[in-house]
Amino acid sequence: MSTATSTPTGTGRKPGGRQVTHKHSQPSKRGRVQQRWLPWAFLAPTIVGMGIFTLLPIVASVALAFFRWDIISAPTFVGFDNFAEVVQDPTVRVSFLNSIVFVIVAVALQLGLALGLAIMVQEKLPAWLRVFFRSAFFFPLILSAASVSIFMRYLFNEQFGVVNWLLSLVGIPAVPWLTTPGGSAAVVILVYVWQNFGFSFLLFVGGLASIPVETYEAASIDGATGWRKHFYVTLPLLSPTTLVASVMAIINALQVFDQPYVLTRGGPGDSTRTAVMVIFESAFQRLEFGQASAIGVILTLIIMAITAAQFRLSKRFVFYQ
Amino acid sequence: MTLISERVETTAPVVTRKKRDWSVAGRIIALLIAAVFVLGPVLWTLSTSLRPPSESFKLPPAFLPLNPDLTSYQQVFKQLNIVLLVMNSALVTGLIAVGQMVTAALAGYAFAHLRFRGRGALFSIVLATMMVPAQVTIVPVFMLIRGVGLSDTLLALIIPAIPTAFGTFLMRQYFLGLPGELAEAAAIDGASPWRTFRSVYAPLAVPGLAIVGILAFNFHWNEFFRPLIMTISEQNFTLPLGLVSLQGNLGTGSISVVLAGVVLSMIPALVVFMFGQRALQDGLTAGTGK
User: Fold this and answer.
1) Where are the domains of chain A?
2) How far is B197 from chain A (nearest CA, A)?
3) Which of A19, A148, A233, B137 could cross-link with A57 by S-S, CB 3.0 to 4.6 Å?
4) Domain range holding B115?
5) What is the pLDDT of residues A249-302, one digit of tens each?
6) Among all residues of chain B, which has the CA nearest to that of A129?
7) Number of folded domains in chain B?
8) B205 and B93, same structural domain?
9) Residue B98 lies in a domain
């Protein structure tokens, strides 16, 4: 492109010959004009798309929470009625309570399992075994929650399921997994944790790999061994990872839908109905879109509050190197 | 260092070495038990799908398919329009993945290497939208789709899923890792900003694009919530939806047929797992401060 300077028309790309005196200022001016709209051309698909399919729906969702609307007739403004009704609705209350219990138990199991296995995998181990275990624990993440729930329903079958057969080997009588409230809740939790602990596991493996070896050497010189070493060295140094892993695990668990929907449809009774399931049911089965939005707004506020609380707590408990 | 450790090994009592071996063995056994619990259900699914439907619930269960029988696979093609389901899933997933790769590359490049007013604020907004759960926006999106006459179409699944905050974030990170001097050099050579992106930066960002594509594929191939809401007629079902409805329609007499469908639906995910595991892991843990 060095020919540009030798051609009288300036840049050599635009043949609409201007005066020779503009030879040098022209390209930069054109460049500046181009620079101004060009980033927006790059951004347009994403920004317009997110505006239409994310930002607008957020605003609409909050607004809709103050209206009664069944799609068929015109929406009517009802103020805080939706919130009042939703908060008093026994099904909604039970479902939120279920979600909270689910989050506490599932996240505790998920993080405990993930941390324990990550520590075991990262300690001295033949390389090929380490690769195998990492892949194995990660594997369920690539499956669809719906498919997993389909085959798990058969495995937890009371009469013919493999789980009860295994329990019978150690003398435990058949557990009515999917027909009792407690059993159903346990199945939903176990299936969820089975599929999702691998994500926390990956985060912990990454976190452990970033702890310098010298810290452990120093600790063992000071006489720390085995589990003491992990309690006094690993856990504090891993706390930033633990924070991220727990925030993500809690947010994901609060939004659980596929597993309870396929495994139990929320039953028996309301025993495994979750917050997102009642959003789905009130919107798309009962056509109460205003109430559904109100429940959604409450759920979002809870998620935001938990996230904020975790980051505040982290200032006290998380140890940054 | 090696000298010292050798001497330690020779002088240290044999007991400690033995003890260490035991702890490694114990760890391996614990990990193996965990791996059995993780992989066992999948192996059972595979082996049961390869047995005649009448033997589905045989106990003790078989975890290895020793005498494969393909009756269930023939049955699943009869009971379910699985070719259509696969085509729908492939079309939806493929177009979303490509759409996300293109839009995320463009936006990520703009956030990383182009200068414009409000860049920081706009990027913060993009990041903030990641925190809003999909279940909250689904009702207005459903109404919007219905309003423009796209309800119960595959486009209703595809279009809203293309703009991606996470993909944009990933691509911005990736482009930030490429030196800005490349753009300066390209400009000196007379390349237009578009040409600079198209011929210099985009080819270098292919690994990042692969991560975005694989993540999109994995997520949307397995997606259940949105298809459940957005599609009504069976001809627009995707695989997970079709399989769940098949399980609802069939009694427990033919579970191996359902499982055959489940196994078929896993094949693309398995391919991704074998060839793109690293990219998938990197993508999933990106942005977690790792």
Assistant:
1) 2-64, 81-317
2) 10
3) B137
4) 76-285
5) 998 898 899 999 999 988 798 999 999 999 999 988 888 889 999 999 998 888
6) B28
7) 2
8) yes
9) yes
Q: Are residues B63 and B160 in the same domain?
A: no
Residues B228 and B118 in one domain: yes
User: What is the enclosing helix (H) or strand (E) of A48?
Assistant: helix A25-50
- Report CB contact under 8 Å: B114, A4: no
Please check whether residue B92 is in contact with residue B154, taking contact to mean a CB–CB distance below 8 angstroms: yes
Question: Given B21, B45, B69, which residue is the final one in a domain?
Answer: B69
pLDDT at position B9, please?
Answer: 39
The position carrying tokens 């030798």 is: A6
Residue of A nearest to B113 (CA): A39
Mapping DSSP to helix (H, G, I), strand (E, B) and coil, where does residue A67 land? strand
Complex confidence, ipTM: 0.83
Instruction: Identify whether residues B260 and B179 lie together within a single domain.
Output: yes
Which site among B72, B136, B168, B228 would you substitute to test the A interface, given the most A Cβ atoms closer than 10 Å to its Cβ? B136
Kind and range of the H or E run holding B37: helix B14-49
Q: Which of B38, B39, B201 to probe the A interface (max A CBs under 10 A)?
A: B38
Distances from the Cα of B112 to the Cα of A20, A291, B101, B181, angstroms: 36, 41, 16, 13
CATH 3.40.50.300 fits A81-317, yes or no: no
The contacts of residue A234 (CB under 8 Å, 6+ apart) are: A119, A208, A211
- Domain edge (last residue) among B29, B48, B69: B69
Whether B106 sits inside 8 A of A43 (CB atoms) is yes
Q: Looking at the structure, do residues B47 and B125 belong to the same domain, yes or no?
A: no
Picking from B133, B162, B194, the nearest residue to A299 by CB comes out as B133
Q: Which residues of B touch A139 (CB under 8 A)?
A: 38-39, 42, 273
Same domain, B60 and B154: no
Residues of A in Cβ contact (< 8 Å) with B250: none
Task: Please check whether residues B18 and B136 belong to one and the same domain.
Answer: no
Cα of A15 vs its chain's centroid, Å: 55
Taking the model in full, what pTM does it have? Answer: 0.84
Q: Which candidate, A181, A283, A150, places its Cα nearest to that of B249?
A: A150
Kindly state the average pLDDT of the residues A163-182.
Answer: 90
What are the helix and strand counts (H, E) for chain A?
Answer: 14, 2
Q: Is the pLDDT of residue A23 over 60?
A: no
